């Protein structure tokens, strides 16, 4: 009886310690993103791919970029991004978000699918100020809020379409 208890206690301790380390990596990552002045391509890919459950929270930014480029190959062609650490402009960030999340966008973005119209849609949705330039860098805090909001809108759209299809 005592041996079973010790084995069970050891097993539970290892599982809790292991899961705690994975979550602490994720928490540290989010803390770094929030405190950064500008979000990078790798950070954006990581947040979006984790949100879509296409990579695990223990994945690296490079793995998240690879998953993003594998799942959305047309996305990368229109962006001039050289590496994972490149800071994203508002126009690039907008294009990535609207290309990945299934949310309502403007007619021009649906027709042209360019970063310019993605940024204009973000401004129309009040994610960016009307006088903000497309070349400005996006802060980590703002990026996280936008991704969370688009994720919520995409899940609502998906739920509504599932209800309609019944």
Question: Can you walk through the features of this model?
Answer:
This protein has one domain. It is mostly helical and 166 residues long. It has helices spanning 2-35, 41-51, 61-71, 73-77, 90-100, 107-112, 115-124, 140-164. It is built from 8 helices and no strands. Helix 1 crosses helix 8, helix 2 (41-51) runs parallel beside helix 8 (140-164) and helix 5 (90-100) crosses helix 7 (115-124). Mean pLDDT is 78; it is low at 7-24.
Quick tags:
166 residues, mainly alpha, 8 helices
Number of strands: 0
How many structurally independent domains? Answer: 1
Can you write the helix and strand succession as a string? Answer: HHHHHHHH
Major β-sheet annotation: none
Amino- and carboxy-terminal Cα gap:
53 Å
Count of alpha/pi helices: 8
Instruction: Bin the strand percentage.
Output: under 5%
Overall 3D shape: globular
Brief write-up:
The protein is an all-alpha fold and 166 residues long.
Question: Which helices and strands occur, and which strands form pairs?
Answer:
Elements: H1 2-35, H2 41-51, H3 61-71, H4 73-77, H5 90-100, H6 107-112, H7 115-124, H8 140-164
